[in-house]
Amino acid sequence: MIKQNIEKVRTRIVEAALRAGRSPEEIRLMGVTKTRSPEVIREAFNAGLDLVGENYVQEAEEKIISLGDTARQVEWHMIGHLQRNKAKKACQLFDCIETVDNEKLAKALSRHASAFGKEVSVLIQVNIAKEPQKSGVLPDDAYSLIAQIADLPSIHIEGLMVIPPYSSEAEASRRWFRATRELRDHLSSLFEGQVKLRELSMGMSNDFEVAVEEGATIVRVGTTIFGPRRR
């Protein structure tokens, strides 16, 4: 079932990309594996999934240990809120931290990555709708944050990540995805190529096709691949 689900999601990504006049090769499918067992994740790997997103450092560590060498054959992204005291372990486990939203966290990641002799990609999480309960830098403050951390060693800013306000209607997310793309393009012009913001991580199971139409390069899909969570 997981193999068929992945194939269906990839087909929908292709169709959405073509509707928007984009190349489907520009978009990567991330499997969001929060609460999923190592056995289920391995099944997804065998079906061709090569990008995984986890919300919690400890949970990711347990799965990576359980999966052994298989885990290192795919790319792991941290997509949940990251506390600074977990930055060291996150640098060990993940290839990319998608939820950087403040200078202190970025500096901690840089310090630990340098100590490990590792290069870590980061995305800037933007609170695009300015929701008080959500993490993320406010859109007006994104330039300042990027400028503060752009020259830190061992971390590389690759783009933006966003979680729009939840709605059961996919179209409701379009304005926020579009605003994020426009913000990315504006920031790119301000940095004149010094910071290459290639990635836009946006869109989940209920709205990933709209995200693709609005410029997503990474879509984060859990339920549509793995089914409803059991806990």
Main attributes?
alpha/beta; TIM Barrel; eight-stranded parallel β-sheet; 17% strand; globular
Descriptive overview:
The chain has one domain: TIM Barrel (Alpha-Beta Barrel). It contains 9 helices and 8 strands. It has helices at 2-19, 38-46, 57-67, 87-93, 103-116, 142-149, 174-191, 208-213, 223-226; strands at 28-32, 51-54, 75-78, 96-100, 120-126, 155-162, 199-201, 218-221. Helix 6 links the parallel strand 5 (120-126) and strand 6. Helix 4 (87-93) packs across helix 5. It is globular and about 45 Å long. The relative contact order is 0.16.
Short description:
The protein is α/β, with parallel strands linked by helices and 231 residues long. Helix content is 41%, strand content 17%.
Write the layout of secondary structure elements.
Layout: H1 2-19, E1 28-32, H2 38-46, E2 51-54, H3 57-67, E3 75-78, H4 87-93, E4 96-100, H5 103-116, E5 120-126, H6 142-149, E6 155-162, H7 174-191, E7 199-201, H8 208-213, E8 218-221, H9 223-226
Parallel strand pairs: 1-2, 1-8, 2-3, 3-4, 4-5, 5-6, 6-7
- Tell me the number of helical segments per DSSP (H or I, 4 or more residues long): 9
Overall number of strands? 8
The percentage of residues in β strands lies in 15-25%
Q: List unreliable stretches of 5+ residues.
A: none
- Please name the CATH architecture: Alpha-Beta Barrel
Largest sheet, spatial ordering of strands:
7-6-5-4-3-2-1-8
Number of domains: 1
